[in-house]
Design goal:
heterodimer, A: 176 residues, alpha+beta, Gyrase A, domain 2, 4-stranded antiparallel sheet, 4 helices, 4 strands, B: 246 residues, Nucleotidyltransferase, domain 5, 3 domains, 5-stranded mixed sheet, 7 helices
Chain lengths: 176, 246
């Protein structure tokens, strides 16, 4: 037979157990609520930061585009081009041309490309042997080795009635 | 010895007998005349033990079957709600107490947690007097149980679970018995009983099926005077007051 369990007094332990359970449940609910509230705050703050970052990034992207590709604005492009041309040093070309060592030969053509920074000189020579002399004179005048290079020599063929046949020489140089 | 814990006191209340056991102090016994009201009996207990000056007590009160008899009742099928079961138990308790049915409100009834169809009933007046007395003078009542219910917690009952149990107190006899269907039969008789009378009561409650199986019953006797050694197989409270009939 199982023992009979009859007591007219409700054990006080149950009160304690129920109270403890209530406290524990309350603590769990409170902790969860606080945590959820914190997470919500955090999420809202992060959302705000993300939006700000995105705005900033878009702004920066727009700025970069307008700086890197100025051709969108023809006036700005023109201005930048003129500025670059003004930065170039033309004196090196003119120094080479105006040197007295070149008095014997005649300059036929001078062409310069500001964008690539190259110059081209065309001289009329008495004979082919003069080409070496001209190259040295040009390089000395511009105070730089290999600044000017002989591109080609060509004979003009028959001379005119008065004199012998002439030779045409082309030199190419880098400005900067 | 001084201690932070309140002192644990065992009290046995029966008709014409009050026993109080405090730790380290010899048993205090009081035989009040049967006509003395319970309030006066408890007041004398207070005076004798100088309770007003004492430290807080925790009271474990055991009641004799004459104050709190068992109530066995058959539960109709389908009745499960606590309030309904309690109402049925009260209706049966009225019959046990020989009271008219309209006085059912004057009974305190508690159901057994382990057996269906078993309860204990005591008078509301008695319950109120004991509860008030217990809470006076910094006291606290932890248990208020019928002695026959406590006695079923003995090891000897747990070993032979199919047997019946008889608890013989100085003022009453209680018999609890499982019948063939597994339902618990319980009955108590007032007045002092001898050994032969107890056996005949037990035999009356034993039905034919159990008699055929020759199952033995346990008869526990609650003595007024403590013995030298405690009965090891006995109930957990008042350990020195129990003996067993062969």
């Amino acid at each position: 037979m199982k023992p009979v369990q009859i007591d007219f007094v409700v054990p006080r332990a149950w009160k304690f157990i129920w109270a403890t359970a209530a406290v524990v449940v309350l603590a769990i609910i409170t902790t969860t609520g606080v945590r959820a509230w914190q997470l919500r705050q955090l999420r809202m703050a992060l959302d705000g930061q993300l939006a700000a970052l995105q705005t900033q990034q878009l702004q920066r992207l727009a700025n970069a585009k307008s700086v890197e590709h100025p051709q969108h604005d023809p006036r700005a492009a023109n201005e930048a081009n003129a500025h670059r041309l003004l930065q170039s040093d033309w004196n090196r070309v003119y120094d080479a041309i105006e040197t007295p060592a070149l008095a014997k030969v005649r300059l036929i053509q001078l062409s310069m490309d500001a964008i690539t920074g190259q110059a081209r000189l065309e001289y009329e020579l008495e004979s082919m042997t003069q080409a070496e002399e001209v190259t040295r004179a040009l390089n000395e005048a511009s105070r730089q080795e290999d600044a000017w290079q002989l591109e080609r020599l060509e004979s003009t063929g028959q001379g005119d009635l008065a004199g012998p046949a002439k030779v045409k020489g082309v030199w190419r140089g880098v400005l900067n | 010895m001084w201690s932070v814990w309140s002192e644990r006191v065992d009290v046995y209340l029966g008709t014409g007998l009050v026993l109080v056991q405090r730790p380290g102090i010899p048993l205090w016994r009081f035989d009040p005349p049967a006509t003395l009201p319970l309030v006066d009996v408890l007041r004398q207990v207070n005076q004798a033990l100088e309770r007003a000056k004492a430290k807080p007590w925790r009271l474990r009160v055991c009641l004799s079957a004459s104050l709190c008899p068992p109530v066995a009742f058959a539960l109709p099928a389908g009745v499960q709600r606590y309030a309904e079961v309690l109402a049925i138990a009260k209706a049966n308790a009225v019959q046990v107490w020989d009271m008219p049915p309209e006085q059912a409100t004057e009974l305190e009834c508690r159901l057994d947690a382990r057996h269906q169809g078993l309860a204990a009933a005591m008078l509301s007046g008695t319950y109120g007097v004991i509860a008030r007395w217990a809470t006076e003078h910094k006291g606290r009542m932890t248990n208020l149980q019928p002695l026959w219910a406590v006695a079923t917690g003995a090891k000897v009952c747990a070993k032979r679970h199919e047997t019946g149990v008889a608890v013989l107190e100085p003022d009453a006899l209680t018999v609890l018995k499982l019948d063939a269907t597994g339902a618990l039969q319980a009955k108590s008789w007032l007045g002092a009983h001898g050994q032969a009378e107890t056996m005949s009561r037990l035999a009356d409650m034993t039905d034919q099926a159990n008699q055929a199986q020759q199952k033995r019953d346990v008869v526990m006797v609650f003595n007024q005077e403590p013995t030298q050694t405690a009965w090891e197989q006995g109930p957990p409270v008042w350990t020195k007051h129990w003996s067993v009939l062969p």
